[in-house]
# Entry
Amino acid sequence: MSGDRPLLEVQGLVKHYAVTAGVFSREVGKVRAVDGVSFEIRAGETLGLVGESGCGKTTVGRTLMRLEEPTAGRVTFDGQDLQALSRTELRAARRDFQMVFQDPMSSLNPRMTVRDIVGEPLAVHGLAKGPALEARVSELLEKVGIPGAWRNRYPHEFSGGQRQRIGVARALALGPRLIVCDEAVSALDVSVQAQVLNLLIDLRAELGLSYLFISHDLSVVRHVSDRIAVMYLGQIVELAATETLFREPVHPYTRALLSAIPVPNPTRRSERIVLQGDVPSPMAPPPGCRFHTRCPAVMERCRREMPPAVEVEGGHVVRCFLADPSAADWRAATDQRRREAEAAQVARAPKPGSSMPLRSSGAPEDEAPVPPALTGGLTAVLALGLILLAIVVWPGTRHAQARDQLAGLSRELHAFAETTGGLPTALDELGWRLHEVFEGGQPTDPWGAAWQYERQGEGFSLSSRGPDGRPGGGDDVAGSHGS
Ligand code: SF4
# Structure
């Protein structure tokens, strides 16, 4: 490496997977696994990459190793553009960057001895053979804490931790400068995790290695990383030095992740930020800020515009409108903005007990009344489709959508009451499989409100809890079959 040039530079990395359907494999959509990821790793540095399952962190690792071809973007290793390399050149370059995979059992061929597994890269690259190869394999095994004399054993003869050490030995065989560790300790017991993590730290100091350490576990990443990048739905939303990130997280998603880490102190009460709902599908990411469907501080602007990644201070990058580095005391200003946005959220949230009469289905009084009930299977399917559409794929026109869906539900409940003289005890009595929606737990709509149906004597309620956990909702309905 020359000068201060980073060892690895990733600029605007994009990886989309086509989704096909039909006899002719027509493309019907794209999974946007990675969407414009940029970072760099310096020599001897460990960068942690964290995020929920499905956020694209493993795809980043595989794409920068060129195990997957990127859709767009640039990956430069020690000044060399990896996309520009031919297959032969890439094979030679791969000596410098290797990967350790999550599951040590499935990443080691059970039919090969450890000698063959660890020695294979040396043989493929023509670096050693015969007694020299045997000696090098033994040396590598000793380096990761496994007796060299065990080299003729098979993977199943080792424990999980030992198998991961063998994976590390294989990655070290070619003398790499960068190792991508993809959930390298996630499959191990906690005590074994610590051993393997300490091994990786020791090897970094001894061999001057750099790591990209991919994990969903922030505590593990904190232990090994110099800097941490937090990913959400294909994008890096915050990147900072480890201590900075843990001491003063800025992005609401980072704050929520950190609040979920258990505090080993019974006298200290941690304030848990509970995010509502699931990560949206990467096939249909929400417009504007990708996190806006779950953000406790969401503002109107966040639903329309994508926040840019801005450097708020030396090396601390945040993708959120709350962070404004141009403010004099930007941290205080950001905290103030967040408090205001959260207060506005709470003020917008429906008040407890604000349920509305069944017939209105949450529509304001000056709106047209709900038309007469339609019955029959077709109506049921259409109504269910509307609800599923709003719950799963339709991120906009919130209130009109919710009112329409609930109007359909109200009509069906009335029709049921008129026909049977009573209310359903179970939702599937309605005959249109609503139980799948409302009895499989509390379904969450695209705006983070959790919905619940309850039979109450002669009446019922259909209620929601907003993302702040408060009950009630302008879209709630309640009533009885006689109402
Ligand atoms: Fe939340 Fe808006 Fe910031 Fe996105 S840009 S994280 S929605 S406050």
About this structure: The pocket of iron/sulfur cluster is lined by residues 251-252, 289, 291-292, 295, 297-299, 302, 307, 320-322, 341 (CB under 6 Å). Residues 353-376, 473-483 have pLDDT under 50 and may be disordered.
